[in-house]
Amino acid sequence: LTGVAPPAAVELAFDCDPALEARSRLQGFKLSDPSLLQSLATSLPFGPAKKAAAAASSVQTFWRRASSDDLLYMFLTIINAYFAEIPMLQSMRAQDLGTIANMIRKCGPQIFACVNDPDCKAALDCLQACGPTDQVCSYRCIVSYESQLLEDFSLCILQKNNCLGMNAQIPQRPTVEPMASFQGQAMTFELAERIFIGWLGKERWSWRVAAGQNAAYDQFNDQYQIYYRAKAKGVMWYDPVFQVERLDGSRVWRRRHYRVRRGQVPGTFHLSVLDNGVVSKEFWRIVDCTDDLSWALFYYAGAASAAGQSYQGAVLVTPDG
Predict the structure, then answer these.
(1) Alpha-carbon distance 236 to 90, whole Å?
(2) What's the pLDDT tens digit per position in 107-131?
(3) Which one of 13, 135, 197, 310 has the lowest number of neighbouring Cβ atoms within 10 Å?
(4) What is the sign of the dihedral through the CA atoms of 268, 168, 151 and 301?
(5) pLDDT (tens digit per residue) in 172-209
(6) How far apart are CA 278 and CA 107, in angstroms?
(7) Is 63 exposed, middle or buried (0-12, 13-18, 19+ CB in 10 A)?
(8) Distance CA 173, CA 72 (A)
(9) Could you tell me the pLDDT band of residue 47, with boundaries at 50, 70 and 90?
(10) Is the pLDDT confidence value at 242 over 60?
(11) Is 90 exceeded by the pLDDT of residue 27?
């Protein structure tokens, strides 16, 4: 089509003929060998060139990682930037001076404390370097540098005051049904809770993650799931314990503490957690489990509403990972 079709607003080619790759552009911004004028334009804080450069960086990162989630986000990023707004991809960054002034007015002490602490400032710099919708990059920054100061910063700006005006919702699609029976019996909440509790008692954990679908949250080196009952009827606790590789190459263990409530249908559960200052709410389903508990499959969809992030994933769990 070279020389025949008119130039398109968006043309992308990866890992193919060099002539096609050379045509890759976003709204006139060339992805390969940008002109001097384009390079200068991207140094400005706002404008179409800056927008195109950010979108191009995200698109190329998503392509290189080559997971199904990343390829989906690659296309959604392009659509959101140039064709139609997608609420789940709205940037978590301040877009004008009024927003910045509001953040300082409401959370000045937390901002001052964070930017004057080397680790907390490193976390902010790391997050700023990530693509606006790159949850894999963002969460790796958070788990690498998490601290009380970073939690206070996020709690004030995002969770308490919602300075960026975000309102992400839990994804409703795809529709994933919970398993209908277990060990020859119709599924009940009690049976479903037994599945979650799994091997706890015989082991120090309920389950270990053997494989995960979401690259941001399900694919750490070592992942343990610990489910146990709370004092209140119909309520459980869930503590995931996982080892992360920090950006400096060191490894550290992290732990979260979820509240678990029964859903409307046996085999479904509502989970909530305060993760580094931001509340995440998730809807989990037990998709399948063998009668002998040799493996189970759990699916979830969630949202950190004040952070503007929606997500979903699935984990295959076994007694030994």
Answers:
(1) 33
(2) 999 999 999 999 999 999 999 888 7
(3) 13
(4) positive
(5) 989 999 999 999 999 999 999 999 999 999 999 999 99
(6) 15
(7) middle
(8) 14
(9) low
(10) yes
(11) no
CA dist 293 and 105 (Å) reads 53
Which pair of structure tokens corresponds to residue 311?
């997500």
Q: Is the pLDDT of residue 300 over 80?
A: yes
The DSSP symbol for 120 reads H
- DSSP letter string over 275-311? ETTEEEEEEEEEEEE-TT-S-EEEEEEEEEGGGTEEE
Most confident of 70-79, 80-89, 157-166, 254-263: 254-263
Whether residue 1 is predicted with pLDDT greater than 80 in this model: the reply is no
Structure tokens at 265: 């249908």
- Chain position carrying tokens 């991809």: 89
Angle between helix 48-65 and 68-82 (nearest 10): 160
C-alpha distances in Å from residue 234, one per residue of 32, 105, 180, 230, 231 = 56, 42, 19, 8, 9
Q: Among 88-92, 197-201, 224-228, 277-281, whose mean pLDDT is lowest? A: 88-92
DSSP letter string, 162-203? -TT---------S--PPPSEETTEE--HHHHHHHHHTTBTTB
Gyration radius from the chain CA atoms: 22
**Separation of alpha carbons 302 and 89, rounded Å:** 14
Supply 274's token pair: 């305060």
Q: How far apart are CA 94 and CA 293, in angstroms?
A: 47
Q: Which long-range contacts (CB under 8 A, 24 or more apart) does 54-62 make?
A: 54/131, 54/132, 55/26, 55/81, 55/82, 56/26, 56/29, 56/31, 57/131, 58/131, 58/132, 58/133, 58/134, 59/12, 59/26, 59/31, 60/14, 60/31, 61/131, 61/134, 61/137, 62/134
Amino acid, single-letter form, for residue 49: A
